[in-house]
């Protein structure tokens, strides 16, 4: 259940903020006056999300979608109370959220601490990753991979099935003859970074 923040929530808000900022090298200290000012300065026509935090051990795959649904409903309720149209929900979460999830998966796998490049070819385009001691050091687009270049190959949009946990690497290689990995180490990396996980979605009519 989502609801607007009140002044009574400020201690919890400040504590959650400090815990989340521990992942950054440089961050801004915010005192109670700054948080109170944010309550007074909010724009009811727009719901801007600057951070989402869970308690240690929280499952983002399970709790993330319901949190987003709550934000949408909360924004609609606030707008309706003020006679305004439904606001747009903007997620401004920085560029390290996904990297942290991938690094955590890698750290819990048999290839923890791996270093080296990982080039994924989609035949017409691709993406290059670089791992340094288990950390995701770089991700860059690969506009025109050569036919024999890369460490793993995914035809069409098949990589999206791996990315979203819909199919395992073995299932994709069985279903698509052109889906392959260069060697077992690459396969182990991909299985660690993109494990198959269940999802629950509603269809729209």
Please sum up the structure shown.
38% of the residues lie in helices and 16% in strands. It has 205 residues and is an alpha/beta fold. The protein folds into two domains: 7-94, no CATH class; 111-193, SCP2 sterol-binding domain (Nonspecific Lipid-transfer Protein, Chain A), CATH 3.30.1050.10.
Principal-axes geometry comes out as elongated
Please tally the helical runs, counting DSSP H or I stretches of 4 or more residues.
Answer: 7
- How many strands appear in the DSSP assignment? 7
- Radius of gyration over C-alpha positions, nearest whole angstrom: 21 Å
The percentage of residues in β strands lies in: 15-25%
The mean pLDDT is 81
Order of helices and strands: HHEHEHEEEEHHEH
The strand order across the widest sheet is 5-4-3-6-7
Describe the main β-sheet briefly.
5 strands, mixed
Could you walk me through the main structural features you see in this protein, from its secondary elements to its overall organization?
It is a single chain. The chain has helices at 10-21, 32-41, 60-81, 97-107, 158-163, 169-175, 184-193, and strands at residues 46-49, 88-91, 116-121, 126-132, 135-142, 152-153, 180-181. It has 205 residues and is α/β, with parallel strands linked by helices. It folds into 2 domains: 7-94, no CATH class; 111-193, SCP2 sterol-binding domain (Nonspecific Lipid-transfer Protein, Chain A, 2-Layer Sandwich). The protein has a 5-stranded mixed sheet with strand order 5-4-3-6-7. The protein has a two-stranded parallel sheet with strand order 1-2. It is elongated, with a radius of gyration of 21 Å.
